[in-house]
Predict the 3D structure of the following.
Amino acid sequence: MNDNQALISLRELQKVFLTDEIETHALSEVHLEIREGEFVSVEGPSGCGKSTLLSILGLLDSPTAGEYVLNGKSVAGLDAGNRARIRNEEIGFIFQAFNLIGDLTVYENVELPLTYRDNVSRTERKSMVMEALEQVDMSHRIRHYPAQLSGGQQQRVAVARALVGRPSILLADEPTGNLDSNNGTAVMDLLRDLHAGGSTICMVTHDPRYAAFADRNVHLFDGRVVDEVPPQSVVGAHVASA
Amino acid sequence: MKLLDDVRYAIRMLSKSPGFSALTLTILSLGLGASIFGFAVLHAIVLKPLPFSEPHELMHIETAILERDIDSREVNFDDFSDWREMQTSFEDLGAFYRGTVNIRGSEKPERYDGGFMSDGSFALIGGKPLMGRTFIAADTVFGAPAVVLLGYKVWQRTFNGDEDIVGQVLRVNGRDAEIVGVMPEGFMFPIMEDIWVPLRYDQADRQRGEGQSLEVFGRLKDGVSASQARAEFQGITSQLASAHPETNDGVTAVIKPFSDEYVDEGTRAAIWSMMIAVTLVLLIACANVANLLLSRTTARTQEVAIRAALGAGRRRLVIQMLIESFVLALGGAFIGLALAYWGMDASARFFGESGNRLPFWVVLELDFWSAVFAIAAAGATALLSGLVPALRATGLEINLILRENARGSTSRQTKWLSQSLVVTEIALSFILLVLAGLTIQTSLIMQEFDVGVPVENVLTVRLGLPEADYETPAEQARFFTELNERIQDIRGVNKATVSGGLPGLWSNWSSYLPEVDEVTDDTRLEGAPYIAVANGYFDAFETPLLQGRDFDDRDSAESLPVVIVNNTFATTVFGSENPVGRQVRFGSPDNANQPAQWRTIIGVSQNIKQTGLGEDEERPTFYVPLVQDPVRFMSVALRTSGEPKALAPALRNVVQQLDPELPLYWVQTLEEAYQDEIAPNRLLGICFGVFAVIALLLAAGGLYGVISFNVIQRTPELGIRRALGADDKSIALLVSRQAALQLGLGLGIGILGAVGASQILESVILVSPLDPTIYITVALLLIVSVIIATLVPSRKAIRIEPMAALRYE
């Protein structure tokens, strides 16, 4: 456990989906705190609400009820414009399917979040993009298009894109889901290095090997947090074998 | 900077989809090109202010006799003089008439369109000479030394721009006239005049109201409105009616903006209908592009979702997507401007070659306002076609799209929107095709119009005798009779004639009173076209006389006034009786220019449609011998077995033998004369035809695109249906059912729209605005287009293999 103050604080968070008058409780009374510099993994079976939780954390979705405080500010009831701004400034996303834009080069994909900021000059953008790409060891591929990269390389570019805006937290949704084990481990090593460098990470995964990289594992079941434990020992074995 | 980045990015994104970009650009270019062309024509003819200072103050004044259903008539010299003296609403009144001015410089005689202007006319319109002066009051006094004012073109062409031209003497209409000035380039008041002479009236032996009628205009004084002027003129015309009841009883003044006189209601209606047509083309193009953008944004939803996840606000995303639409629309506008330029150039050449003369201020070319319109239309097009797809694309659940890595399936609303756009396209196309059908049909009627005489191999020319040399009717009659005799002997001429007007092109008009009727109210008499013709007119036009005889040497100025009537006249007035020998009174006792005269009918001719091409009605028409009713302007027609234009030099020789100063003008075949006459309608028909083809292609293409896209989107569903046993027929039906529904709805809305829109064409078409043939043809055309557009996607759907479809992402 990290002793820093809470970067994210969820209290009695609920998310209810209404379809044809049927209420589906995706999340119920979720209490969760993520501290600065912490690496948290969210685990649970399919349909337990992991991705919904991550979407709410990433301000891609709004909770039905409850409180969400990010960096000391309540963000649960923000309008779309402010949510977009906070997503841009405070949150870095890493998706399972990489979600790079095929028509943009590596450089442009990484630069993308910065283009939505008003106060970053072209020169600043360039240095930030190069720094992020160097961090993931992809600076030699700036003119390549996503289709010209391997899956692992694409995910590293996605990580660089998540990092480039120096967000408060990185949200990773099954970041290794589309990768083979070698590339998966490489990406996890990268996340671990970032964490070691001070980044706060919240990762959804269903793979216990990768959950073991986290400081803390949050278990969800039927939309509720049922357990919060340190990583299992199997992880240590996996890491050792990697 | 951000905007520039977005523009750069938009261009890059578009260049990555060359097929989509080229297709969209083509559609927008066609739509915008048509609308820029339509606007440029509208602006040039209807919207552009007249090139005079304070043009809104310039009014055209004419007379009306409402009791006799005459709502617009030119003004006689006496009324003009009285008005000018009595009125206070206008700074001054000017008057003119347009006529032929023959000049003879150093070489052969030349004929120009001339303006016969009252003094002060130039000052009223702010027309200042390039050199010398315009006319003063002394110039307009009958008998004063003749003067002439040259137009720039005449000065350049005939006198090579001689700087010392003012003061030189020129032979004008058979009389020496001093050149008092030259008008600047581009000045051709009132319509397309090249030369001006003072308006003069010989007051001796002239009854009130007699003489050449005039067009009168005036400039309203500061602070005086047109309605105040109308009120004043009501009083003035009442006073004149009391003072001169024999000529002015019931005569009122009509005051209207000057430009309204030269761009009449029919022209306005035609041009506005063209504007409606091009707007329809543009709307169809917008619907098409909107559909293409919808398909594209559906395929780009993931990209949009990623951008949104990375912090792009919806406004920003919408703007970014709209910038793509703007880039496309501006590209379309640029190409559209080039297309419109070509269209305007072709139209100007078409008009120029047809001999039709537009007012000098109407220049068929693109100008600054066309460019402004192009940019505005591009902006509106981008918004119209791009906004909804952009809103749709940015309004999706980004969360779901990102999580499921979905390519973007078509939502129910997007489908509905897309299908509505196709319905709109079909409806708009239907309206446009009906308008086009009505206009093209009119053009065809005119093209194939049978005036009742063989029109092949006939050379026609026009001659105008100068008043100075041919002052009396006897002199005029002598010249044309002599000419009629001599042209019969021209080598290669089979038949020849001289007449006041040619069949289908021109006639005079007179009221008539058959002896069988009792005069109850002279003002209610019927009117009919009439032509003064030389002996042999009917033979030259191969028109048999059904009864009686032709004009011959027995008919002279001194002999019994005679007339030949056409068959319709005979049957209308005399029923089954033989009219030969009966009397008809032409003219009217209260018309100074057309006094009443009883004439004896000596023959009945087969019908010739003498007035206006395209006139359905067989009008009662009558012919008088030119020796009994000569005019200064006559047409010559020479029928030959060979090339008609080869006769022109010989004809010119004959005319010059009679009068070396007399130029021939409008030298053309009769067929060419008809083509010129119908040129505006032909041009309108061509324009509508082009717009209709564009609309049809766009609508069919749009439908094809939507159905194809729909088939792709429904591939998994179709695969499941296939797997469950659906046969080819049911799959094809499934696909085409949607098209059939869209077609039905589109046609329904289109019919209602066309019924309303076609009314505006009523004054310019020769068929009923509700002509069922056209409506049915257009409906069939659209049905066939839709079937063709549906065929390929249906075949594609039928060929879908269940497993391949189920594996489809």
Q: What stands out?
A: The first strand of chain B starts at residue 58 and ends at 65.
